[in-house]
């Protein structure tokens, strides 16, 4: 079921370290995500998974280490960060839609201000993106007029419209009512089917089992274990992974 | 009762000085509009500048805002009007009033807009930056529009309070409503011009006071 | 540069002005001591009226508040001080200032206290009444303390505005701080006495402004 292309890394993380004050959040993280691969990151809260994800577009500044997107460095001096961030889409737990703009305005803002597209071109691209998440008919709505699930789909469209090489999902369904989760997961599945490279932090175990190419388990700021969903869920090698999965299944 | 009417609502006096007070009203309105526009623009610009968090710049802005908020505007008006000519800067009374009240409104507006900027959720910055918007773009297109919306009620209240202070211009001879009225009152030896002035201020400001009440109710309502 | 120093920071003139300006500061503080409690009391009455269930009382209170929020305090002061004598009512500058500022401040305090009263959940009053407390007791011991706490920064800001407002008393020749400084300025033709007064206002109000800022941040977080 995997469309991933081994040997063609879209995102590489090398020897990543990060501390908040004296607290070490990430220790020597090495990770490579192949093109069109969907990698799921699991772990207890405080394991550093969200921080790792946020380092991947430098919303958190790594203390040391190297991050490459499509072979181009994201870290280091002289990097055009705003240009690089165009290549990395980000979807947040709390959606973070701009409340003063319509769905269409949310999607077009970066297209017009960063990519400098003319209004018509930007709006056409935005409508296409909204159509992909099934919300073409909601283009003129403000975030407050949309359900949580719809808001998150607009946020996905906002990231998709920039045609990123990699998309990062930071607990995209945690803030949603259970009945709204399905729509968002369906959109993510569709985005993957179209060949997007995805790094996902989430607690949706069933979705991870069905859709992920690879699962990573993090604890205490380190990658403890990784493998196919069958390996990690079915036969975890590490005691900490077993304990974590055991707690989830109650 | 007759004495009262004769003193405060004397038809002859009212008729005679109404044109002067109307002229004063024009001065008050022009000054008020200019003060509100430039004061809020300057204050917003300072709040944006402070958002870059360049330490010495922020410190200067904070000191400016604190001093201008702590000093009575009348003290500043007298300082500018009587102090500056002796160092070679002579400004007309109206210009002094405009400059001082603009600076004062800017100080309050800076604090109010800054509060709005800091109250905008961090996720809004992050979402904007994650799509490649630069700091200035994120501030201008995403954060500032939300911040300003959030602080419209306090900003309105403050703007009303400070435009009302145009009446202080009377002390240095600005021919605004109160200035015209006190002149008329001393010529006519009758209080009716003052009544007319009070009425003129009510006509000008009451709609804004009522509007601000409505704004506050609307903004604090459910779903704000 | 020397001209600026001589015109605004002339220490000799400041020293001469100091006793008179300090006496003026005393009057400034006296006005505040009278006007702030009066304004709070008037404001509380108007605030209670504006949240009352009696429609006439509610509209009368809101009308009072909006009227005096729309009228510049200096207009009110001059009307009372220079207008009323034509009708045979001659007030001392202090009385005129007290009445004018009482009316003005009551309106502003009323608006703040009203917001405070509305911020207290209805259940608080109901709980108090259910234990047998009277309406007045409920207000004094349950509703008002919470209301005041919720709008404390605004109440303090308004107190700062009142201290600044007292400078208007100089227009009716009440010898508060600005009047004293202005007097010495008009004799010496030098702005240093005004700078001295400005400095004293800063000493008086800057700490308050800082404290209010801290309160506001604490409530926001």
TrEMBL record, chain A:
Q: Where in the cell is it found?
A: Cell membrane
- One cellular component term from this protein's GO annotations in UniProt: plasma membrane
Q: What is its main location?
A: membrane
The UniProt GO MF terms for this protein read:
ABC-type amino acid transporter activity; ATP binding; ATP hydrolysis activity
InterPro entries the record matches: AAA+_ATPase, ABC_ATPase_HisP-typ, ABC_transporter-like_ATP-bd, ABC_transporter-like_CS, MetN_ABC_transporter-like, P-loop_NTPase
Key words of the record:
Amino-acid transport, ATP-binding, Cell membrane, Membrane, Nucleotide-binding, Transport
Topology relative to the lipid bilayer, per the entry, is: Peripheral membrane protein
Record-annotated ABC transporter domain positions: 11-245
Q: Which residues form a coiled coil?
A: none
Family statement drawn from the similarity comment of this UniProt entry: Belongs to the ABC transporter superfamily.
Record PANTHER family: AMINO ACID IMPORT ATP-BINDING PROTEIN, GLUTAMATE_ASPARTATE IMPORT ATP-BINDING PROTEIN GLTL
Protein name as catalogued: ABC transporter
The organism is: Roseivivax isoporae LMG 25204
From TrEMBL, chain B:
Key words of the record? Amino-acid transport, Cell membrane, Membrane, Transmembrane, Transmembrane helix, Transport
* Family assignment from sequence similarity: Belongs to the binding-protein-dependent transport system permease family. HisMQ subfamily.
Q: What is this protein called?
A: Polar amino acid ABC transporter permease
Major place of residence: membrane
Q: Name one GO cellular component term.
A: ATP-binding cassette (ABC) transporter complex
Which PROSITE patterns does the entry link to? ABC_TM1 (PS50928)
Q: Where are the transmembrane segments?
A: 20-49, 61-83, 95-117, 194-215
Residues in ABC transmembrane type-1 domain copies? 25-215
Give the GO molecular function terms: transmembrane transporter activity
NCBIfam families linked:
HEQRo_perm_3TM (TIGR01726)
Location in or out of the cell: Cell inner membrane; Cell membrane
Membrane topology, from the record:
Multi-pass membrane protein
Supply the source organism for this entry.
Roseivivax isoporae LMG 25204
| Biological process according to GO | amino acid transport
Instruction: Give the superkingdom in one word.
Output: Bacteria
One Pfam match: BPD_transp_1
UniProtKB/TrEMBL annotation, chain C:
| CDD domains hit by this protein | TM_PBP2
Name a biological process GO annotation: amino acid transport
Q: Name one Pfam family in it.
A: BPD_transp_1
Q: Does the keyword Cell membrane apply?
A: yes
Task: Give the subcellular location.
Answer: Cell inner membrane; Cell membrane
Mark the transmembrane ranges: 20-47, 59-82, 187-209
Give GO terms: molecular function aspect only.
transmembrane transporter activity
Output a single Gene Ontology CC term carried by this record.
ATP-binding cassette (ABC) transporter complex
Q: Which InterPro entries match?
A: AA_ABC_transptr_permease_3TM, ArtM/GltK/GlnP/TcyL/YhdX-like, MetI-like, MetI-like_sf
**Chain's role:** Part of the binding-protein-dependent transport system for glutamine; probably responsible for the translocation of the substrate across the membrane.
Protein's recorded name? Polar amino acid ABC transporter permease
Organism of provenance: Roseivivax isoporae LMG 25204
